[in-house]
Write a structure and sequence with these properties.
The chain contains four helices and five strands; from the N terminus they run αββααβββα. The chain is an alpha+beta fold. The protein has a five-stranded antiparallel β-sheet, with helices on both faces. Helix 1 (3-20) packs antiparallel against helix 4 (112-126). The longest helix is centred in the middle third of the chain and has 20 residues, at 53-72.
Length: 127
């Protein structure tokens, strides 16, 4: 692996760790590529996924699809800053990140505004 790839991977890993530090209710932070593969990050230690592997893959694929759709109409609405889905047990936030997406999931009892705003600050700081 080249030094540039190592540095990029290290930056992405550090990004995920910084976002985990925002709130103890954050369950997952990951960078998902165009093939809907988690290329960095994952679940917080000790957290069990609520979905099985196939359902999780489908969720990332849907998150990518949502982001792609809204980006396709961005010349009319402006660029996508984030997408939030809140359900009874979980809140999922998706952010565009360097051609990929950053996915974050947290307990629905989390402070959505704080997590969103702090995550955006961190993303801006590494881009």
């Amino acid at each position: 692996m080249s030094e540039k790839n190592d540095t990029n991977k290290s930056l992405k890993g550090n990004l995920c760790n910084l976002i985990f530090d925002i709130d103890e209710k954050i369950r997952f932070v990951g960078i998902v590529n165009k093939e809907s593969e988690v290329i960095e990050g994952g679940f917080k230690k000790g957290i069990e996924p609520l979905l099985d592997v196939n359902e999780e893959q489908d969720m990332y694929l849907q998150s990518l699809s949502n982001m792609t759709f809204f980006q396709s109409i961005s010349r009319k609405f402006g660029p996508v800053d984030y997408i939030i889905t809140k359900q009874k047990k979980i809140t999922i936030m998706t952010f565009p990140f360097k051609g990929d997406i950053l996915c974050l999931s947290a307990s629905s009892y989390t402070d959505i505004d704080k997590n969103r705003d702090e995550t955006i600050k961190i993303i801006i700081g590494v881009q």
